[in-house]
Amino acid sequence: MHAASRNALTTGTEFVDKLLWESVDKVSTAAQVGTELFLVVDRLDEERALRVNLADASLTSEQRSGIAQSVFGGKIAQPSLDVLTHAAAQKWSTTREFRDGLVQLGRRALLRGAEHQGQLEQVEDDLYRLSRTLIRELKLTQLLGDQTAEVSARRGLLANVLYGKANMFTEALALQVIGRPENNPVDDVAALSFQAAELRGKSVARVETAVELTEGQQAALAEKLEQIYGREMSIHSEVDPSLLGGMTIRVDDERIDGSTRGKLARMRAGLK
């Protein structure tokens, strides 16, 4: 995003957080705001003129908010309308970035809802597990990423996969990202899990091990990585028996290979 849009998104994020914190029923309000903002985005995707008017920098803040009020007033709940009119009042660099900003605010509301429900860590873990499932299930990933298929069909497919296995916030986040692809299903779902970790004040360490880590081992690893990187860590772990032993760790763009497979590869390379 350009500078103006980043500022607008920051302001909008603060507005959503404050609105939800002051709500009597934080969880229900968060679920409603997130869901309805995505419905607004669907409408904007269908109506270019409306999308352009709501982000038109030649109009005053009051005029843009007034358009949002006139079009969506009475059609979405007041908290959702408050977020929308506040976002419309901000200056966005482009129409596209205004639309994308609303998507981010919708996701923020759902993540905050999970947090207020005490399930943010679980949502983070569920989204990460889903991203790994998509890596293994190539046919499913291809179907979910098929842009020629109807969005409703792709969401229905994922809903069947998630049925009975995820809470309402995990499901809502995963379903909306499938309908609004940014990269591919694997990376888009993984990015949501990273956002959940960030909201918890943590960075993500992606860990692959030859055998499953116990909770104690994960806690010890997180503590050690926190000492190295100077920030709190959330461990996203996965078992890969082909490592033979040890583990690999990826933090941001840095990869540490302490696996037996890696050590053997380095020994073979040294013998050449």
UniProtKB/TrEMBL annotation:
A Pfam entry, by short name: OSCP
Membrane topology: Peripheral membrane protein
UniProt keyword annotations, A-Z: ATP synthesis, Cell membrane, CF(1), Hydrogen ion transport, Ion transport, Membrane, Transport
Chief localisation class: membrane
Cellular compartment(s): Cell membrane; Membrane
Domain of life, source organism: Bacteria
InterPro entries (alphabetical): ATPase_OSCP/dsu (IPR000711)
Classification via NCBIfam families: ATP_synt_delta, PRK13430.1
Family as reported in the entry's similarity comment: Belongs to the ATPase delta chain family.
Its job: This protein is part of the stalk that links CF(0) to CF(1). It either transmits conformational changes from CF(0) to CF(1) or is implicated in proton conduction.
Protein name: ATP synthase subunit delta
Name of encoding gene: atpH
